[in-house]
């Protein structure tokens, strides 16, 4: 493996250039300890001070998937919808983490409410078969849409590539139905459209992707992949958890641990960390350190009080690092390096 695929350029990461997806991505990087520095807000380049060998580029969501697929950039963050649509037959785009926790939407088959007898894909197939001409489907995702229609054995269809607001296409006669991304569904209701009951093509959200060949051919690219996954996964794992510190009276650390492990919530991720509290009166108090989910805090407080816990302190958790992130192991498996770590050290 080469030490660098191209010594004349830095490793490139493409991020969304505008909109909510862009804001949430920058927020993810900052909270993951990978804050992006953009000296000039009008420029489409930036840097990550903690990763000096990396250049950040800002592109449209669709262009990010294409750039990673073609190896122009090494990594990117964009929607799983465009990644799935722009993927090639060789699988050039490697999905490194498919659930970053934002940008959620659904790609669905959508029809006018006026089609009162069409409620699901079977109904739509019968409607298309009875039509005197092919069913016209306006979409930004012709590949995914065709595959979905093929699964439902609906062939009398013409897919019309379209951009922009597709909701108006049936109204103006440009298409009979559409396949489009749905978030809240408000826009559909406002335009008297409905999603078929089994018309879900793809659940999508923001994902981290890399170019398969660049990962295989460059140790530097692989090292950056490991660093990205380490910090992003550590943040995602930590963001829904909190740390609890509590003092508990007991004869021995083992006795205190037994009290804690006997409870459903405060047993924590793997078990408590317990240390002796040096008191003025020489009493047997121990400090317990626990990690639990935020939503379980009320129950945790009740459980701690039930075993004599006091002086409870609650703090946010910034990162939880695993021995090796599951996403990293999965990526190595996809690259055919399940048991080999030497090439990325």
Give the ordered list of helices and strands.
EHEEHEHEEHEHEHEHEEHHEHEEHEH
Which superfamily, in CATH terms, is the homologous superfamily of the largest domain?
A: Periplasmic binding protein-like II
| Distance linking N and C termini | 12 Å
pLDDT < 50 stretches = 2-6
The count of DSSP E runs of length 2 or more, i.e. the number of strands, is: 15
Count of DSSP-assigned helices: 12
Q: On the 0-100 scale, what is the average pLDDT?
A: 93
Question: How does the overall form come out from the CA principal axes?
Answer: globular
* Strand order within the widest beta sheet: 2-3-1-4-11-5
CATH domain topology of the largest domain: D-Maltodextrin-Binding Protein, domain 2
Level-2 CATH architecture of the largest domain: 3-Layer(aba) Sandwich
Give the number of domains: 3
**Rg over alpha carbons:** 26 Å
Characteristic terms for this protein:
345 residues, alpha/beta, D-Maltodextrin-Binding Protein, domain 2, Alpha-Beta Plaits, 6-stranded mixed sheet, 15 strands, disordered N terminus
Fold topology:
Elements: E1 11-16, H1 19-31, E2 45-47, E3 54-59, H2 61-69, E4 75-79, H3 80-86, E5 93-97, E6 105-112, H4 121-130, E7 135-139, H5 142-151, E8 157-161, H6 169-172, E9 177-182, H7 186-190, E10 193-204, E11 206-211, H8 212-217, H9 219-238, E12 241-249, H10 253-261, E13 273-277, E14 285-293, H11 297-306, E15 310-316, H12 326-334
Parallel strand pairs: 1-3, 1-4, 7-8, 7-9
Antiparallel strand pairs: 2-3, 4-11, 5-11, 6-9, 6-10, 12-14, 12-15, 13-14
């Amino acid at each position: 493996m080469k030490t660098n695929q191209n010594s004349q350029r830095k490793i490139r990461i493409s991020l969304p250039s505008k909109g909510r997806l862009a804001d949430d991505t920058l927020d993810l990087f900052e909270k993951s300890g990978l804050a992006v520095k953009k000296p000039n807000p009008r420029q489409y380049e930036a840097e990550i001070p903690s990763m000096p060998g990396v250049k950040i580029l800002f592109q449209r969501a669709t262009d990010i998937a294409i750039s990673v697929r073609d190896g122009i950039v090494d990594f990117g963050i964009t929607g799983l919808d465009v990644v799935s649509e722009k993927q090639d037959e060789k699988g050039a785009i490697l999905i490194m983490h498919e659930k970053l926790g934002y940008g959620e939407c659904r790609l669905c088959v959508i029809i006018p409410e006026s089609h009162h007898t069409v409620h699901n894909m079977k109904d739509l197939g019968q409607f298309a078969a009875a039509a005197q001409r092919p069913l016209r489907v306006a979409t930004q995702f012709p590949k995914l849409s065709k595959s979905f229609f093929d699964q439902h054995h609906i062939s009398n269809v013409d897919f019309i590539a379209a951009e922009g607001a597709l909701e108006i296409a049936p109204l103006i006669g440009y298409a009979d139905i559409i396949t489009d991304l749905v978030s809240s569904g408000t826009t559909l209701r406002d335009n008297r459209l409905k999603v078929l009951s089994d018309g879900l093509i793809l659940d999508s959200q923001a994902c981290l992707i890399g170019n398969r060949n660049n990962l295989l051919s460059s140790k530097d690219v692989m090292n950056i992949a490991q660093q990205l996954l380490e910090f992003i996964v550590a943040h995602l794992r930590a963001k829904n958890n909190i740390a609890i510190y509590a003092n508990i009276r007991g004869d021995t650390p083992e006795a205190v641990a037994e009290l804690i492990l006997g409870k459903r919530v405060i047993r924590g991720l793997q078990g408590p960390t317990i240390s002796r509290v040096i008191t003025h009166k020489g009493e047997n108090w121990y400090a317990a350190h626990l990690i639990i989910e935020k939503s379980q805090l009320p129950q945790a407080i009740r459980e701690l009080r039930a075993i004599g816990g006091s002086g409870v302190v609650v703090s946010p958790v910034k990162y939880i690092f695993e021995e090796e992130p599951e996403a990293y192991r999965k990526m190595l498996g996809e690259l055919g390096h399940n048991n080999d770590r030497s090439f990325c050290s």
